[in-house]
């Protein structure tokens, strides 16, 4: 059986913007637009977040049809509702990893102690 081509999207789990009292998280367009390119090219896409569970969102524009399609996609919605942690996936199963931006990444990406194997 031929190998499936897959891309892993990694999101932040951090939801506090330092000591400002403001919320933060991952930036939807930075996941949605690459997802569209990847899926149009025939790749399967999986999503993880540093702590697993539901990652916090910081920025979305639902008037953007690509962002809306991303959020409405049943597979994506299911993954976003309960993401796996990096240590729960095998890096060798993926052709590439996309680290999605957002302010939260400054706190948890550099200190992640649960890398994908």
> What is the global morphology?
globular
Largest sheet: number of strands, sense, barrel closure = 3 strands, parallel
Helix-residue proportion: 25-40%
* CATH domain class name: Alpha Beta
CATH topology: Rossmann fold
Number of helices: 4
Which CATH architecture would you pick?
3-Layer(aba) Sandwich
For the secondary structure, the number of strands is 3
Query: In total, how many domains does the architecture comprise?
Result: 1
Which sequence of strands runs across the widest sheet? 2-1-3
- Mean pLDDT rating: 91
Helices and strands, in order, run as EHEHHEH
Percent range for β-strand residues: 5-15%
Q: Report low-confidence residues grouped into runs of 5 or more.
A: none
What is the distance, rounded to the nearest whole angstrom, between the alpha carbons of the first and last residues? 23 Å
Rg, Cα atoms, Å: 14 Å
Describe the structure.
- The chain has 117 residues and is of the alpha/beta class.
- It has a single domain, classed as Rossmann fold, CATH 3.40.50.
- Helix content is 28%, strand content 14%.
- It is built from four helices and three strands; from the N terminus they run E-H-E-H-H-E-H.
- A three-stranded parallel β-sheet has the order 2-1-3.
- Helix 1 (28-40) packs across helix 2 (65-72).
- The chain is globular and about 50 Å long.
- It starts with 5 loop residues before the first strand and ends in a 9-residue tail after the last helix.
- The mean pLDDT is 91.
């Amino acid at each position: 059986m031929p190998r499936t081509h897959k891309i892993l999207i990694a999101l932040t789990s951090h939801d506090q913007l330092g000591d400002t009292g403001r919320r933060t998280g991952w930036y939807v367009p930075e996941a949605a637009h690459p997802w569209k390119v990847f899926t149009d090219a025939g790749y399967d896409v999986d999503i993880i977040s540093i702590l697993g569970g539901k990652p916090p969102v910081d920025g979305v524009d639902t008037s953007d049809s690509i962002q809306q399609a991303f959020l409405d996609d049943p597979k994506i919605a299911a993954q976003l509702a309960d993401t796996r942690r990096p240590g729960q996936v095998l890096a060798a199963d993926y052709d590439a990893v996309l680290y999605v931006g957002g302010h939260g990444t400054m706190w948890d990406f550099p200190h992640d102690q649960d890398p994908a194997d």
